[in-house]
Every structure is written in structure tokens, then in C-alpha cells.
Amino acid sequence: MKTGAQILLDCLKQEGVDTIFGYPGGRSLLVHDALMDDQQIKHILVRHEQGAAHAADGYARTTGRVGVCLTTSGPGATNLVTGIATAYMDSVPMVALTCQVPTAEIGNDAFQEADMAGITRPITKHNYVVTDVKDLARIIHEAFYIARTRRPGPVLIDLPSDVLGGKMKPVPSEPASRRGYQEKPTLNLKQIKRAASMINKAKKPLIYAGGGITQSNSSDKLRALAAKGQLPVTHTLMGIGIMDPKSPLSVGMLGMYGAWYANMAVGECDCLIAIGVRFDDRVTGKVSSFAPNAKIIHIDIDPSSIRKVMQGGLPIVCDAAEALDHLVELIEERDHGDWLAEIDGFREKGPLPRPERDHLVPHQVMEAIAVVAGDSPVVASDVGLSQMWTANYLPFGGPRQYITSGGLGTMGYALPAAMGAALGNTDRAVFAINGDGAFQMNCQELATCAQYNIPVKCIILNNGKLGMVRQFQKVLLDSRYASTCLGHHVDFCMVSQGFGVKALRVKGEADLHAVLQQAMDIPGPVVVEIPIHPDTYSFPMVLPGGSSTEMVFEAD
Predict the structure, then answer these.
(1) Which residue ranges form the domains of the chain, and what is each CATH number?
(2) Whole-prediction pTM value?
């Protein structure tokens, strides 16, 4: 006979789980007790449940495996909500295990009771409340199956304490399945052939690629398609790394804070091949002016993403990898030299700015990080200016190297996500790049890094401001800076040392490389504080509601 808690751990091991990020409480006692006797699953004690969700997220994004987080009931469970929503928006496979009051007390406003199924219904692929220990194994396997298949996403399992304490004789698990759930959509080969014909006839084709390429592990296939047809590729924030940035076919990131030349390529193309993207507002800007001259092909595994924003075009519901396999065979080898030269002209006319100042500027910081990071580093960037500086100026040669909260835009993401990434990628350098505002949201996870010696190199770009909000205030509100001054009274090095993490401070350009190299030479976690002038912003940018090709290049 085994308890529900023991059955839970057995099922997790069958699903290949080796790491759980969690925080204990009264209702999770049995699970944590069972973990004491289990040598195969490592439990990482975070300092806040939001950190557990983001760590599971970072682990999942960088490994391609399902991330797992565990909490007690009530506030412990509700503290996961932002992290679950972050994973949902970015299609991250995650299983959130929330312990619950006994089944007989559910609905009676018991101490630390919260309706997690109801709360998380809009931000999960599916959720469960287990009411019988006999159903536990089936539900666990089913949850992992749903989380990792089709368009991936988070699944929540609510575990009442009497179910975890219940006993039964384990029975062999059957292959996971769910009635009405199709693991992979059926490919419509006729539509694929139509898409190939459209590409072959196009004079100015352009691939617009996103996170779906990474999720399907098909970046190599995308590169093969681009090479055969001489198809230039622009990518989203979530698609960073799917193209080699050194390739002449790589056009860089498009969108609100992307490259002007990438947006111009979209504006001039006559065939837009959208693969694994949502046409979100940060990409399109004013929808009516996005790709106005193009016939659109939209390939996505999620039918709800097609024609949600852009109407018309050729819809293809299928896995990106499967579509690319066929398209590589069906498209013709073409010479699009004139079109590529036109894009190069855009690049020469409006390159990403690299201003020279008498103080450190972001591109210098990113280029210095690239020098010390080695091959295939993992970088988690937070939200705000640090996100855009990292995305535009730090080169990534492959997928699953750059992770960030793209859809929800969650501040405080970088440090715990990097922590999870480091535990899933022990052979790679891992960085968390934060603004000073974002860092202060989850800086307590430095204590977790110190306790487990997790070697995250945490970069704080300190401008004393909420930089991106300040940029909007400067451009849109005539420099009326309301509630965006954080001050310079926090000694981040002292704070970090208080958590048991070594800290370094960059004074300026002269010692930037040396300090970063020193951080790399120190084993374990290190914080590096780098001063950034408060009037340093991310340009060019598309104004809210504006056309993607009409970008603002300076604040004034």
C-alpha cells in the first residue's frame, strides 16, 4: 500500500521529473515528507511561490521538458498565479501542484482554502481537483500529456490533503490520453501545396517566425527552408535564436521595439509566411497597415491563433516542424538577390542605434557580456528596457538560449527563471539581466541561489528609474515623470552580500570587461551592478496604435 503522496512522486518520476521548485505549508506536509525518502527528485526551496513558478518556467523553456512547481493551499497557491499566467501566455509546458484542504472542507471557507480550479481556469490549458486517490495516477500522467503536447502550456492539479494521505495498492499506469483531445492536428497537405505555390510565385517573400518554431524544435528546418528559397527571416521576441544572427537571411527582430529595417521588410514584402506566431499587438502595431502588400500564409498548431488578429490569408493548422518538412521539399530554389539587397538598403538607412556617450550605454554592456559568456549561454531577461536591450544587442546563435516574459510582460521574471534554467543546464553559463526595478521584485531568490550554489550571474542595469514607463512619459506625456523614480538609495551589492551572494560594481566603460570576467571566474552566484544613465532609452519604437513602419528614433 502507498499513500497518495508516494503515488504522486512515483508518477512524477515516470514522467522524467528530476527537479521540483516549491515552498511547504500545512497542506503539503505529506508530499514534502515523502520527498525526504526519495533520492531521484530534488526539491528546491524557493523564497516565494512566484519564484517557484518562474523557476519551473525557466527550467522548461531551456530544456524543453515539463517544469514542476509545488505549493501548499490558499495564499501559497495563489502566489503562483502570475507565474502560471506568464507560462500560459508564452506556451510553456508546466505542471503546478497545489495542495488543498480536505475534500469534505472544500467550499466551506476553511482556513487557507482557495478555489484554485476557478482562479486559474482562464490561465491554464486544463486544471484538475483530485477527489479520489484512485484517480491520482491517471490525472498526473494526463496532466503531463496535456502540458507538453499540441500548443504547450501550464496544467494545474489541486491535491486535497486527504487524497494525499489516502492509501491504495498501486496499479500499472496506462498511456495518457484524453477523450476529444488531439495531440497533433491532421496535416492538410493540399494547403501546404498552396502555400508552396504562393512562395514560389512571390518576388518579395518574407518569413515571420516565432516561438512555435522553438516549441517544435524545428529551427534547423526553418534555416533549411530559408536557405533553399533565399527567404529572409524576421523573428519575434519569442523567436530569438531560431535564426543565426550572422546569416545574410536574418533580418532581426520586428515589432514595437524591433529594428526599423525588419518592420520595413514586412511593409514591402508581397508574401508573408507566418510560422508559430500570434500577430500580437507588439508586432503588428496598427493592424490595417501591417504587411499591406502581402499575401499571408499563417501556420500554427493552435487554430484559435489563426485569423484572430489578421483576417484572410491562407490558414494552415499544423505542427511547425511537420509543415517545414513538406515546404522544404515543395519550394523551388530561387534567387532573391534584389529583394535581399533592398532589405540591406533598409538596414544601412536605419540600423539599430549604437550611440557614443561619455557614460556606459546598453549595447556596450551586451557586447561585453557576449565576450565573457562563452558558447551557448542561457540568458533570462526581465521586462522593460533591459528586455529590449538584451533582445536587440546580445546575439543568440540557437534556440532556448534567450528566455523572457513576452506575452504577459512580468517584472521579476529574470532571476528565478535563470535559477531554474541553471539547474536544468548545468554545463552552460546562465545570466539574469534585470533593471533595478525588476530586480527588487524577486531579489529574495538570491537566498535560494546561495543555499544551493546556483551559478546565476545576475546583472543589474541600475538607472534608478522605471525606465520603460519613464520612456513613455517622456515621449507621450511631455516628460511628466509620475511615480517612476526609484532613487539610488539601495545598495544592491550590500543587499546581495546580505543574502550570501558575492557582488561586484562596475564604475564605467574602463572596468566593464574586467568586472564581468571576474564574475565569471567566481564559482556560484554573483551579482554585478552596472550604472545606466536615467535618460538612456530603447529606440526606435512604434508609438501605441501607430504603424509599424513609422518608428520614433529619439525621445525629443
Answers:
(1) 2-168 (3.40.50.970), 189-349 (3.40.50.1220), 362-538 (3.40.50.970)
(2) 0.96
